[in-house]
Write a structure and sequence with these properties.
Its EC number is 2.7.11.1. Pfam families: GUB_WAK_bind, PK_Tyr_Ser-Thr, WAK_assoc. It is a single-pass type I membrane protein. It catalyses: L-seryl-[protein] + ATP = O-phospho-L-seryl-[protein] + ADP + H(+); L-threonyl-[protein] + ATP = O-phospho-L-threonyl-[protein] + ADP + H(+). With 667 residues, the chain is of the alpha+beta class. The protein has 4 domains: 68 residues, no CATH class; 132 residues, no CATH class; 87 residues, Phosphorylase Kinase, domain 1 (2-Layer Sandwich); 230 residues, Orthogonal Bundle (Transferase(Phosphotransferase), domain 1), CATH 1.10.510. It has 19 helices and 28 strands. Helix 7 crosses helix 8, helix 12 runs antiparallel to helix 14 and helix 12 runs antiparallel to helix 18. It starts with a helix and ends in a 38-residue tail after the last helix.
């Protein structure tokens, strides 16, 4: 054997020794760590009386494998747990009943708590206890029901405009009020509360709604119930590792229970010996093939070694761009955006949304931007922040607002940076501070409808539901071209399901009425909201106006009412030339027909967004106008809907005309 062959063989032997040593170390470490895991998962006290053990675990005290990932408790001043992204105080844990008593911290800290969110357990490993009930809280309603008990919420009542806020248990007598709440009240949330068995609703009227909220509510869990009982009975401690239950024992982890075999040491020794024998045989095979291939691949191996060395050297250098993007979105510092908005000057406010205030700003590179500052009191601000970034970072469309960047989610404040769209919102131009008779002509409005539908059809094709389609979220540039904005409520829609169950959210006047009944979201929910937008473009009226007749507070109801009474002309903005211009009259009638289809109560009767877009484009084209011209009778005596049936999509394909009476000029 020459020197080169000897060196190669020596190299192979050394490789075997290194591998064997590493494997032995790992085996020893695994044996020791098993006992360490058992010790690490010892039950601990949080506060004076709260005993914390599986499936719960104390963050920063327990290892994460000592409990279920969704059962982490922060134990600082007060034990807290997060359920569906909302923090609750932990009052008590009953491991026998598999239940935890939680309470909203606002209920304890405020003499007049005003919950702003509903709790949803769709994605949480909990279910409500058997004795829970929903306390519904209605904000700023036009009236107070008299046929069941209500609790006053004085701090949320707007006395200046005769509005009332109250709480109530909507049992068998009051369930109908839920369906009317969107018309009578500005908003509504439901808060779960615990009611002891045998307690009547009448007895609870002596308590204030705040006292009821302070009682909290029970959550039951079913995570690894049986397995954990078996594990603890055998002397083990329950854990959760790699999304599977595991029983940590004094010797080593088991799948369900600790072994009772007294001769376990002998079995472990045999197992180790067998394992090492297998390792030895494997390594000898490795040496044989390594010897044969070493000479052939010497040059390639040397090149690879150099390449790896260069990569290692490069990785050790500080990277100035590290952490500069999030979901491929550029990261801005809080200081930079604070400076860009002149310290969030109130004079630079562009608008106030449901989740934050938007400011006009100018970056150091000269770009003019809109900066959204999420409200600090919004419990779901982090979820909405990440949701909007995750969605906008994957979308590119000429009619969707562009996200320039954001702050880090651990920043002092959560800020989102968008392109600045200078011409306000569609709502501003229709019935807001930019409304100017004659400025927003019907051709411009039709273009706005087409571009908005194009953006929504693109979202639906990308399996995304907007969930908050409204004229306040449709921005306009100086050429009156559309930029759809505000994706804080948007949801990614799985391709293999027909709907997604969610907590009730959205804007009154635009929310799908079927959504209030079953809280199931689908793409036709956006179609309903867009139908309201179409009616706004036709009428210049807001989606909700408490100054209108109580049956027409919602614009959708008003539109259906006018259509059924053959009075489309009363709905149309008189500035559009509906009575004097045949083309305007025919296209408005066709758009109203489309809106009527979008506003159907049953989602199956509504068109999809692609069909809506194609119909609007057809209405705009001369060929479509000509095709439909014979279907539209513009005589003064023709009826709007021939043989119309309430809420039937077939009825709107009949001839539509308006009466020759003076149009309503009110907004």
């Amino acid at each position: 054997m020459n020197n080169n062959m000897f060196n190669e063989f020596f190299f192979s032997i050394m490789t075997f020794k290194v591998i064997a040593i590493i494997i032995l170390v790992l085996l020893v470490e695994t044996t020791l760590s098993a006992n360490q895991q058992y010790e690490a998962c010892e039950p601990r006290q949080c506060g004076d009386s709260l005993n914390v053990r599986f499936p719960f675990w104390i963050q920063n005290q327990h290892q994460s494998y000592c409990g279920h990932p969704n059962f982490g408790i922060t134990c600082e001043e007060t034990p807290m747990i997060q359920v569906s992204n909302v923090d609750y105080i932990v009052r008590n844990i009953s491991y026998e009943a598999h239940s935890v008593l939680v309470v909203d911290p606002d209920a304890l800290e405020d003499s007049c708590p005003t919950p702003l969110h509903n709790i949803s357990l769709n994605d949480a490993p909990f279910e409500f206890g058997p004795s829970y009930a929903n306390l519904y809280i209605f904000y700023n309603c036009t009236s107070i029901p008299t046929d069941y008990y209500t609790y006053s919420v004085p701090c949320a009542t707007n006395a200046s405009n005769s509005r009332h806020s109250f709480a109530a248990f909507l049992h068998h007598m009051g369930l109908g009020y839920l369906n009317a709440s969107s018309q009578n009240c500005q908003s509504m949330v439901n808060a779960p509360v615990e009611i002891e068995e045998g307690t009547s609703y009448e007895n609870m009227i002596s308590m204030s709604y705040a006292d009821i909220l302070r009682e909290g509510f029970l959550l039951n869990w079913g995570v690894a119930r049986n397995n954990c009982t078996i594990c603890e009975t055998s002397g083990g401690r329950c854990g959760f590792d790699r999304n599977e239950f595991i029983c940590f024992c004094p010797d080593h982890p088991h799948s369900r229970s600790c072994s009772q075999d007294p001769d376990i040491r002998k079995k472990v020794t045999i197992g180790l010996a067998t394992g090492l024998s297998g390792i030895f045989v494997t390594c000898m095979v490795f040496i044989f093939f390594a010897y044969r291939r070493h000479k052939r691949n010497k040059l390639a191996a040397s090149t690879g070694l150099i390449s790896r060395s260069m990569s290692l050297d490069s990785s050790l250098k500080p990277d100035p761009e590290k952490g500069s993007t999030y979901f491929q979105t550029p990261i801005f510092t809080y200081k930079e955006l604070h400076e860009a908005t002149n310290h969030f000057d109130s004079n630079k406010e562009l608008g106030d949304g449901g989740f934050g205030t938007v400011y006009h700003g100018k970056l150091r590179d000269g770009r003019v931007v809109a900066v959204k500052r999420l409200f600090e009191h919004n419990y779901k601000r982090v979820e909405q922040f990440m949701n909007e970034i995750a969605i906008l970072s994957r979308l590119r469309h000429r009619n969707l607002v562009t996200l320039y960047g954001c702050t880090n989610r651990h920043s002092r404040e959560l800020l989102l940076v968008y392109e600045y769209v200078p011409n306000g919102t569609v709502a501003d131009h229709l019935h807001g501070n930019r409304a100017d008779a004659g400025l927003l002509t019907w051709p411009i409005r039709l273009t706005i409808a087409i571009e908005s539908a194009d953006a929504l059809a693109y979202l639906h094709a990308s399996d995304i539901i907007h969930r908050d389609v409204k004229t306040n979220n449709i921005l306009l540039d100086n050429g009156f071209h559309v930029k759809v904005a505000d994706f804080g409520l948007s949801r990614l829609f799985p391709t293999d399901v027909t709907h997604v169950s969610t907590a009730p959210q959205g804007t009154p006047g635009y929310v799908d009425p079927e959504y209030y009944q079953c809280y199931q979201l689908n793409d036709r929910s956006d179609v309903y909201s867009f139908g309201v937008v179409l009616i706004e473009l036709i009428s210049s009226k807001p989606a909700v106006d408490i100054g209108r007749h109580r049956h027409e507070i919602n614009l959708a109801n008003m539109a259906i009412n006018r259509i059924h009474n053959q009075a489309l002309h009363e709905l149309v903005d008189p500035c559009l030339g509906f009575e004097s211009d045949y083309t305007v009259r025919s296209t408005i009638t066709l758009v109203a027909e489309l809106a009527f289809r979008c506003l159907q109560q049953e989602k199956e009767m509504r068109p999809c967004m692609v069909e809506v877009l194609e119909t609007l484009r057809g209405i705009e084209s001369e060929e479509y106008k000509k095709k439909k011209a014979d279907e539209i009778d513009i005589s003064a005596d023709a009826r709007l809907l021939k043989n119309s049936q309430p809420l039937s999509p077939d009825s709107v394909t009949d001839k539509w005309v308006s009466k020759s009476t003076t149009p309503n000029t009110s907004n």
